[in-house]
């Protein structure tokens, strides 16, 4: 009986561990995607992206990672590949619909500006 | 034929069929159009064939309002006029430039682009240009490697430019004019007064003078003022006899609606990936046609903005350039010109470095935009007189909120489109960032393009000349040049002002 219980507990612990690992990996991938404005990264270095992020946070009330994550994940999904694609689409849509913001003169999509803000907070932490 | 008016006996009477005052781009184009047609054409030029400081000083004047270049050095006062130092940039106006636009006060010409097309074609050859074709597809066949940015064509288009060598009219057409059997060029014959008949309904004669103390009278059936927008207005205002407010100025329009092009570094364009910008970059060695980015008519209407274009210069080159208004600040046009050339040369030295990948991805966006017609932007007369006794001009250059709004909106739209197409990002210059700031910075320059002081309108309350460039209320007085422009358009005015002058010439020949 004890042996059976031990095996059961071990099994569930393993499953829980695997789920946690999967979640942490997903979370890490999500965090990476949220802090990686793809197109902007092709134009500016990391330092500039962080500067844009800091400036964006000063211009708006979007000052916490949770809040930014919530805004960025709206309709974007969690899965890494899908998330990246959706963020890319959101950036294009922002420019199409005029959902933009002027940060230090840069006319940016709000999504990519939030990504910079998310990155700047990640760096600060 | 050529006569130096300084060598004529004092009080000589000069007579002809038509008298054209001013031998610059407009005046020479018109005179050439009358070459060998049997009519006696008098062409008056205040200066000679070479630069003369005393003559140039007749162009001095003061300005208030928006900062501007010294009036003395903006134009050249000699045979050939300002073509002696122009850059040669040519493009026709767009159809929208001639239309009445509800969002632009006092817009609308009494003629259309189509009315000018035959004369644009004729003007083209005077500037030693290629075919009259400003269509991108045409030039892509000539230069298959030129490619436009993949932008939404309903919003942004590529406006093509051609480049004259640039033709210096003074050198290129001197022989033809001097050897002409029917064109009589008088140099050192400065117009100082226009004299009307007893009812101020037609011009009786012109009084011309020079520094040698000679005064002559010029009589003709028809008179054409082709002295440039500032000088034309100045002479009309200064010729007060029976016309108390000046000739053609019963409705207080002469000198008003002075316009320039708004020329200023406005933004940066940073590309995601290197893109061949051959289409947009000016090639100093070949002077082949290039394009500037422009907004479509529909977008201008939807957003209520003025017409303008943005040109691209590699950022590493542009960063070396001082604003034009800070370069062209000498009263002597030769010194200002030298400074301008040095300014461009300094940036061209960066040519090699911009070829690298990073340089190839960052560009300065430079605006050339029309100014909204504004009654308060004007030429008046100063209390000071020049050496020949004519009151000097006083410029008050005034801009409006629409000018600043249009500049900001233009780059906002361009930024949106660059982002939407995934091409890159646009960074606005400091002066465009605050939506509540309607002031223009001191770095704003013009293109040395003086327009609109004798604007065209069928309504004498809104314009000085009619659709045929005839001064309202005066039967035999006509104006040639960019002073007749009702609105400024985006392109440099030279090609259009010559086309308009050739149209006037055609009218006078057939009239």
Q: In terms of quaternary structure, what is this?
A: heterodimer
Q: First CA to last CA of chain A: what distance?
A: 48 Å
Strand order of the largest sheet of chain A: 1-2
Please estimate the helix content of chain A: over 70%
Structural class of chain A: mainly alpha
Fraction of residues in β-strands of chain A: 5-15%
Quick one: overall form of chain B?
globular
Q: Approximately how much helix is present in the residues of chain B? A: 25-40%
* Biggest β-sheet description of chain A: 2 strands, antiparallel
Give the biggest sheet of chain B. Answer: 8 strands, mixed
How do the helices and strands line up, and which of them pair or pack?
The complex is a heterodimer of chains A (about 120) and B (about 500).
Chain A (H helix, E strand, L loop, with lengths): L1 H33 L3 H6 L2 H14 L5 H9 L6 H18 L2 E4 L2 E4 H15 L1
Helix pairs in contact in A: 1-5, 1-6, 3-6, 4-6
Chain B lengths: L1 E3 L8 E9 L3 H9 L7 E4 L8 H4 L5 E4 L5 H4 L14 E2 L22 H14 L9 H7 L13 E8 L5 H4 L1 H6 L3 E5 L2 E7 L6 E7 L5 E11 L3 H10 L23 E10 L18 E6 L1 H7 L4 E7 H4 L5 H4 L5 H16 L2 H4 L7 E8 L8 E8 L5 E7 L3 H20 L3 E5 L48 E3 L14 H17 L1
Helix pairs in contact in B: 1-15, 4-15
């Amino acid at each position: 009986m004890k042996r059976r219980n031990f095996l059961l507990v071990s099994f569930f612990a393993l499953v829980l561990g695997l789920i946690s690992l999967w979640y942490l990996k997903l979370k890490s991938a999500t965090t990476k995607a949220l802090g990686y404005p793809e197109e902007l990264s092709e134009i500016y270095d990391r330092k500039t992206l962080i500067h844009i992020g800091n400036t964006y946070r000063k211009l708006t009330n979007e000052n916490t990672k949770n809040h930014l994550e919530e805004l960025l994940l709206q309709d974007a999904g969690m899965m890494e590949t899908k998330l990246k694609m959706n963020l890319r689409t959101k950036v294009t849509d922002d420019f199409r619909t005029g959902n933009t913001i002027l940060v230090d003169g840069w006319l940016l999509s709000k999504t990519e500006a939030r990504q910079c803000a998310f990155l700047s907070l990640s760096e600060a932490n | 034929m050529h006569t130096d008016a300084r060598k004529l006996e004092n009080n000589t009477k000069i007579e002809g069929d038509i008298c054209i005052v001013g031998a610059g781009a407009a005046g020479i184009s018109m005179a050439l159009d009358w070459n060998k047609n049997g009519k006696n054409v008098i062409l008056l030029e205040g200066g000679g064939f070479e630069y003369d400081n005393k003559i140039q000083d007749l162009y001095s004047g003061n300005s208030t309002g928006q900062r501007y270049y010294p009036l003395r050095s903006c134009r050249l006062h000699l045979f050939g006029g300002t073509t002696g130092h122009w850059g040669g940039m040519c493009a026709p106006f767009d159809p929208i430039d001639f239309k009445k636009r509800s969002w632009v006060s006092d817009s609308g010409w009494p003629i259309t682009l189509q009315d000018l097309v035959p004369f644009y074609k004729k003007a083209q050859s005077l500037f030693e240009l290629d075919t009259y074709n400003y269509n991108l597809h045409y030039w892509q066949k000539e230069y298959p490697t030129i490619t436009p940015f993949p932008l939404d064509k309903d919003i942004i288009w590529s406006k093509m430019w051609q480049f004259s060598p640039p033709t210096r009219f003074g050198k290129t057409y001197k022989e033809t004019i001097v050897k002409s059997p029917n064109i009589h060029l008088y140099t050192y014959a400065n117009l100082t007064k226009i004299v009307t008949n007893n009812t101020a309904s037609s011009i009786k004669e012109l009084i011309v003078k020079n520094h040698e103390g000679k005064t002559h009278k010029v009589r003709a059936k028809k008179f054409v003022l082709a002295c440039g927008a500032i000088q034309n207005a100045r002479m009309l205002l200064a010729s007060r006899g029976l016309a108390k407010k000046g000739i053609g100025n019963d409705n207080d329009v002469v000198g008003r609606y002075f316009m320039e092009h708004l020329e200023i570094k406005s933004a940066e364009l940073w590309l995601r990936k290197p893109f061949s910008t051959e289409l947009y970059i000016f090639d100093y060695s070949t002077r082949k046609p290039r394009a500037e980015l422009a907004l479509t008519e529909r977008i201008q209407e939807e957003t209520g903005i003025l017409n303008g274009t943005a040109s691209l210069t590699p950022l590493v080159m542009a960063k070396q350039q001082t604003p034009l208004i800070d370069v062209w600040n000498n009263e002597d046009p030769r010194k200002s010109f030298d400074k301008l050339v040095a300014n461009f040369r300094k940036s061209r030295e960066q040519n090699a470095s911009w070829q690298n990948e990073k340089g190839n991805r960052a560009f300065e966006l430079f605006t050339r935009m029309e100014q909204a017609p504004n009654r308060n932007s004007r030429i008046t007369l100063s209390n000071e007189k020049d050496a020949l006794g004519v009151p000097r001009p006083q410029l008050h250059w005034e801009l409006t909120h629409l000018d600043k709004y249009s500049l900001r909106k233009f780059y906002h739209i361009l930024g949106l489109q660059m982002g939407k197409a995934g091409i890159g990002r646009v960074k606005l210059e400091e002066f465009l960032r605050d939506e509540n700031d309607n002031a223009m910075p001191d770095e704003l320059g013009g293109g040395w393009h003086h327009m609109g002081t004798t604007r065209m309108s069928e309504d004498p309350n809104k314009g000085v000349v009619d659709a045929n460039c005839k001064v309202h209320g005066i039967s035999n007085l006509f104006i040639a040049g960019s002073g007749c422009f009702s609105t400024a358009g985006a392109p440099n005015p030279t090609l259009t002002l010559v086309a308009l002058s050739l149209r006037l010439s055609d009218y006078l020949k057939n009239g």
